[in-house]
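Dear support,

I submitted the protein below through the web form. The confirmation email said the job was done, but the results page showed an empty box. After a refresh the structure appeared. I'm attaching both so you can tell me whether what I see now is the final result or a partial one.
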Amino acid sequence: MANHTPLSVPSEEHGNAVILCPTGRVDGTNVAILQGAVRERIDAGQTTLVFDLVELNYISSAGLRVLLMSARDLQSHGGKALFCGLSEQIKQVFEITGFDKILAVLGTRDDALGAI
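What the results page shows now:
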């Protein structure tokens, strides 16, 4: 695939939250990278994750499942997952799947951090 961009998941801490910034594409071949980054934070006791998706240019159903399961896992532990920085393409995927109705989707990183 000519425009296949590998996935990386840099993160930064902000107060009591961790901001995860998936960059590139999330698909069936690399979804374990995203899942591992999330699991590492949850296993470390982190209860608030902000997913800044501004650098994400594609997400498959496998990636969406990781986001949904992460949000549910955090919620069951009294925490929360917030999603921000959706490009038009990712925003459309969230709308088509209804994820924009069941997940906390905010406009910018500042909006998400303000909602913590």
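Response: this is the final, complete result; the empty box was a page-load delay. The chain has five helices and seven strands.
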